[in-house]
Amino acid sequence: MKRLLYILCFVLLGSTYSLAQIRLDNTGLGNTSLRQQSDDINYLQPKDYTIGGVTVTGTEFLEKDVLITISKLNVGQRITIPGEETANAIKNLWAQGLFDDVSLKVASIDEETIFLEIAVVERPRLTRIDIRGLNKSQTEEIRKQLN
User: How many domains does the chain have?
Assistant: First the structure.
């Protein structure tokens, strides 16, 4: 009985690991992802591309041009995919502390020119704080500490 339990645990753990493998399809990979548009990108053999354009999606309050500047991905720049430039672009955006999710996707590839899309999810913004249930002096003290 104990042996059967060990075998069952082994099978369940093995299936869990197989489900955790990276999917290379058009759905994206979540945080720090690089979407594969077709079979043009081979992750085992890095290739150099020239950036033909960079777009930003998912912003509501932030300027798209500023985010492109922060990512340090410039039109005409030669980059290797996969490579340090794409990883650093995502790290630079994460370092701002403004996003819940940052992903880098390939919009299209035209021979040696690549068009990238930076997809971000902005964090909610705090606009007002209401403090209830305290007297005026306690409320003022808390507001001073928040500032």
Answer: 1
